[in-house]
Amino acid sequence: YFRTGLYPTGGFPYTLGREAEGTVVSTGSGNTFNLSTGDRVVWLATGAYAEYTAAPATHAIKIPDAVPETHAAAALLQGLTALTLIREAHHVQKGDWVLVHAAAGGVGLWLCQLLRAVGAKTIGTASTAEKIELAKKNGADHMIDYSKDDVVSKVKELTDGKGVVAVFDGVGKTTFDASMECLARKGSM
């Protein structure tokens, strides 16, 4: 978005990049929020495409050892996206029926996990047995293979004809009409 000019840079020179992961090479004075030289961190700041970035400690988070290198920056942004969807786009409650398209994708897997954590009933879509199994392992209660099954009729069957209170659709054009048909009255998409 910065490259295309959709988001203004605020002036030049400008180093692109908003989220990144790396290793702390030095800390400044003041509160470092328990960050130390050598810590693996992920952060949301500016200038992430640079070889070295001065990131505020308040914007950096230690990466758990179990998270492989090169995964944390994507996971942070995808996780925040999923959290924003279930708490701000539509505040999902325990027992709510929710449809997640591309449930085995980056944001989709986060949605499945977070929806399970809040007690929602999650219906996911995917196109292969491997993706279906992955989404189920991450919290999807029901999965629909959209390459074989009619999504609308399966959702109506699972929800006793009521539909879902929210559809989180990261696909768009090809799923839009079906998503609208899956919504309960006053549902969110």
Automatic annotation (TrEMBL):
Residues 1-189 form the Enoyl reductase (ER) domain. Pfam families: ADH_N, ADH_zinc_N. InterPro entries: ADH-like_C (IPR013149), ADH-like_N (IPR013154), ER (IPR020843), GroES-like_sf (IPR011032), NAD(P)-bd_dom_sf (IPR036291), Quin_OxRdtase/zeta-crystal_CS (IPR002364). The lineage of its organism: Eukaryota, Fungi, Dikarya, Ascomycota, Pezizomycotina. One of its GO terms (molecular function) is quinone reductase (NADPH) activity. Transmembrane segments: none annotated. The gene is ZTA1_2. The keyword Metal-binding does not apply. Keywords: NADP, Oxidoreductase. This is NADPH:quinone reductase. The keyword Plastid does not apply. Its EC number is 1.6.5.5.
